Amino acid sequence: MLKGKTVLLGVTGGIAAYKAAALASALVKQHANVEVVMTAHATEFIAPLTFEQLTGRRCMVNTFDRNFTHQVEHIALADRTDLVIVAPATANVCGKLAHGLADDMLTTTVLACVCPKLIAPAMNTRMYENPVTQDNLDLLRRYGWEVIAPASGRLACGAVGAGKLPEPEQLLQHILRAIALPHDLAGKRVLVTAGPTREALDPVRYLTNHSTGKMGYAIARMAMLRGAEVVLISGPAAIAPPPFVEVVDVTSAQDMFEAVTARQDWADFIFKAAAVADYTPEQYADDKLKKKDADLSIPLRRTRDILQYLGENRRPGQVLCGFSMETQNMVENSRVKLEKKNLDMICANNLKVAGAGFGTDTNVMTVITRTGSEELPLMSKEAVALRILDIAAAGL
């Protein structure tokens, strides 16, 4: 997702410098151009050669290194950088960056950068909690830096508390949120439902469906990467929720109905991607389970139609998107649902098509609006999510 982007990774002199190597590797796997700048103290913890082997680029340490073309290297690097991340950042470097001090290759380069800047402080707990350090971090925030909070745990010095550098995957997610996609949905609020619901038949059994939540989770993640504020209302799902998204866990269709309607007026976009169980039992059948050969038929009633309710009670300017799965007459049946439920768009996929539907990482989908339809070829669910968001944003 970072193809064509240049990330400047600043590494300072702390024991957590070894994690920066894993971050550099993760960025390369995202097809980013990774430029590593180290302080002299950082080279005492990890060799520049490590980063050079991982990135395929020269690691910079000395401002006065003569092994460059005839240009002011720290300015040239600043000009081509799309994002700066300093990880780990010592208390010393945090203080220098906060006050504009530039006495080495890293600080002079960063001072010349006008791109987004992230900093991940990592140090002893008492050093991190010192009011001077906290004032410096607040000053960095005032100057537009995003300060990534350290993790808590046992530190290399033996202390227990805040000060650990977050894992490289967490740092990567901060970078992706900052520059992976244009923030054309900044200021917009997106509500997504995803996953199955469960309707209890008795204390042991329940009604559900095969939904995994992958499509809804992909929409939530892509909306977040495009700058939106996102709430994901999820039934029981076995996948990790997307970062930087508020997740509301629910179980039954009634739980989901209440969670959605409580936030309905908040949202600019609502994507109802959950596959809600259509029926819930009228009453438990515990007494029937006591007999081995009993008739286990249980009277059922329909669950609340969330999408119907949303369509009937939508606020002006809100974009409402539903999802449908059809085994025949897919477009025709889905268009009937769009009209009946007062939707702006509906995303339909045919369960007979390979690569579409529940449990897959891909989808084959037709997006139907009030003015037409667009057939999407087989693609990843994240690519499908991006196109759905494009169409939805065009209708706002």
At a glance:
This protein is α/β, with parallel strands linked by helices and 396 residues long. It has 14 helices and 19 strands.
Which strand order does the major sheet show? 12-11-8-13-16-17-18-19
Compute the number of helices: 14
- Indicate the overall shape: elongated
Percentage of helical residues?
25-40%
Written overview of the protein:
With 396 residues, the chain is an alpha/beta fold. It contains 14 helices and 19 strands. The protein has helices spanning 17-29, 48-55, 73-80, 91-98, 105-111, 125-129, 131-142, 168-179, 214-225, 253-263, 286-289, 306-312, 330-340, 381-394, and strands at 6-11, 33-38, 83-89, 117-121, 146-147, 151-154, 160-164, 189-194, 199-200, 206-207, 229-234, 246-249, 269-272, 279-281, 300-302, 319-326, 345-350, 362-369, 373-380. Strands 12-11-8-13-16-17-18-19 form an eight-stranded mixed beta sheet, sandwiched between helices. Strands 2-1-3-4-5 form a five-stranded parallel beta sheet, sandwiched between helices. A hairpin with a 5-residue loop joins strand 6 (151-154) and strand 7. The longest helix has 14 residues, at 381-394. The two termini are 26 Å apart.
